[in-house]
Specification:
2 copies of one chain form a homodimer. The first copy, chain A, has 10 helices and 12 strands. By secondary structure, chain A is α+β, with helices and mostly antiparallel strands. In chain A, the strands form 3 sheets. In chain A, strands 8-10-7-11-9-12 form a 6-stranded mixed β-sheet, with helices on both faces. Chain A has a 4-stranded mixed β-sheet with strand order 3-6-4-5. A two-stranded antiparallel sheet of chain A has the order 1-2. In chain A, strand 1 and strand 2 (about 35-40) form a beta hairpin. In chain A, helix 2 (about 65-85) runs parallel beside helix 3. The longest helix of chain A is centred in the N-terminal third of the chain and has 19 residues, at about 65-85. Chain A is globular. The model of chain A is unreliable at about 320 (pLDDT under 50). Chains A and B meet through helix 1, strand 2, strand 3, helix 2 and strand 4 of A and helix 1, strand 2, strand 3, helix 2 and strand 4 of B. Strand 3 of chain A pairs antiparallel with strand 2 (about 35-40) of chain B, so a sheet runs across the interface. Chains A, B: Keywords: ATP-binding, Kinase, Magnesium, Metal-binding, Nucleotide-binding, Thiamine biosynthesis, Transferase. Chains A, B: GO terms for molecular function: thiamine-phosphate kinase activity. Chains A, B: It comes from Zhongshania arctica. Chains A, B: Catalyzes the ATP-dependent phosphorylation of thiamine-monophosphate (TMP) to form thiamine-pyrophosphate (TPP), the active form of vitamin B1.
Chain lengths: ~325, ~325
């Protein structure tokens, strides 16, 4: 007897394997299994939401591990909540599968449940369809009214920060198909950044009353910081010698270009009034997370990268989907 | 120069063509173009949400008109809001395209904007990716806390209603590829039900304090009413002679089977205490929409269909995606 859509939802997303449904969460009044899910927000909070689609052979390789795919998909999508300063609540999953492979689904749902627990989210709905392998996730979170971090608040006089280190995930693309046994330790570190990015959710929530603008770095620092600059109507200067580069990345060639133009890092880039540097330092210490000042906002438009001699440094372009 | 993802969003969804972004809507604090959209709900309201995916050659034919696709996708998804009694607010669109076809996109976005205006919704976010043609829409609405219509409230003593007429859309599948010029008038009527279903949004909102359970008919009456019965822990009896059948459907063969087992109608099926029949009649008149009493709830489990002689009538199975 063929496995029905209802069976898949029941076995892999409601009762068995991952058990991702969080009926016990106070925000979720009704989860999977009705026409709509029902979410209740805290009084005075707004809903923040974002959608990401991952298509096989475009956003992840053919035959990519379903366990890695589940975690990576949710992390990538949750990263948008982080960039907006949202407290994560729930997500939906639109999953399109060419065939019903129970091993694939089982590993997928266990990993998705783990990631959901790690990020503090529950699955509240979705759709399971037949077709070329593709996932669309919508994440939902909340923030006190008016406190969501947007891209358009950067001001002249602000300084620019990034979290963590940049360029690791894009450097890993070169050995995505290398057999694990043949990887050097550095390469394994870089690959982990690609396979299992960390959405900076706690950082984002702590930036609500500190950052003037924020974005997550999915398409590369130059492209994503460019969005802040454009939305805010200002110019930005990045000192390339101040970019946070991991030891592993420095061992693997064009580290600066990877840091400026490589996507998939999912670190946050944000602007803060220069007068509040001490608050950022305190936050960095309390979160045990590197927050590096890499430049500043000035009058004008566009991004200028400079080196230690104040000469212009030209990065390659950010990734474009078409 | 190739058209980028940013260009597509700007040209077809933000500024040009359809102009679907509803920045003027008070519920939308931030629409497309930031990491997250920000929605504000009315005080005392809950968020209701649902996701639907449509895959080419599974849920719609290859080379299907992009204008029809846009309207149908939003209608199908909004129908879940109707079934839950939600007031529609906003939606997101995850659109995966094999190539950038500007004529296709232009017709798609104009039609999507028209449908969004018709249903009272605005586009607040999405993702545009490259890959096999596929759409995932998430619709969001709201209802006063505790008033969302669920599937699990049907009670013994309730009567069962459906809106509109049933079976038309599934009967249309037989001539989906017939040239328009060769269609009979009846066939054109049925095709319109398939191509342009009407989400029963106003009906759903009016059922909030009247229906004990509700669902929209996407997989066929027998299958979808079965979900209400199972979730409510009751049995249901449908009198097949009371099913609302259109004149067009009666001209085209097995009308009863189409009405019981055919999907894609997107009418609502709901249960109401027998004591409130007069309220349903009043609602039907005020909405100018047929609301037909087709059966009743009794103790037990499962669905029984009977004919005018009280003999059991066996419908074919509802559509299964796998």
């Amino acid at each position: 007897m063929p496995v029905s859509e209802f069976d898949i939802i029941q076995r892999y997303f409601r009762e068995g394997a991952g058990k991702i449904i969080g009926a016990g969460t106070s925000a979720v009044r009704c989860g999977i299994g009705d026409d709509c899910a029902v979410l209740s927000l805290a009084v005075g909070h707004e809903l923040l939401l974002s959608v990401d689609t991952l298509v096989e052979s475009v956003h992840f390789p053919v035959n990519y591990s379903s366990a890695l795919l589940a975690r990576r998909a949710l992390a990538v999508c949750a990263s948008d909540l982080a960039a907006s300063g949202a407290s994560p609540l729930a997500f939906t999953l639109a999953l399109t599968l060419p065939t019903v492979d129970e091993d694939w689904l089982s590993a997928f749902s266990v990993s998705l449940a783990d990631a959901a627990a790690e990020f503090g989210m529950v699955l509240v709905g979705g759709d399971t369809t037949r077709g070329p392998l593709c996932l669309s996730l919508q994440v939902m979170g909340s923030a006190p009214a008016g406190q969501a971090l947007l891209r358009n608040g950067a001001q002249v006089g602000d300084v620019i920060y990034v979290s963590g280190s940049l360029g690791d995930a894009s450097a890993a693309l070169a050995f995505l198909n290398t057999e694990p046994a043949e990887l050097q330790a550095d390469q394994a570190d870089l690959l982990a950044r690609y396979h299992a990015p960390t959405p900076r959710l706690v950082l984002g929530q702590n930036l609500r009353n500190l950052a003037t603008a924020a974005i997550d770095i999915s398409d590369g620092l130059a492209a994503d910081l460019g969005h802040i600059l454009k939305a805010s109507g200002v110019a930005g200067v990045v000192r390339v010698q101040d970019l946070p580069l991991s030891a592993a990345l420095l061992n693997h060639g064009s580290a600066l270009d990877a840091a400026l133009s490589g996507g998939d890092d999912y670190e946050l880039c944000f602007t803060v009034p220069a007068s509040r540097r001490a608050d950022v330092a305190f936050l960095s210490a309390s979160l045990d997370l590197a927050l590096s000042e890499i430049g500043y906002i000035e009058v004008g438009h566009g991004l200028r990268c400079i080196d230690a001699q104040n000469k212009v440094y030209s990065p390659a372009n950010g990734y474009q989907h078409f």
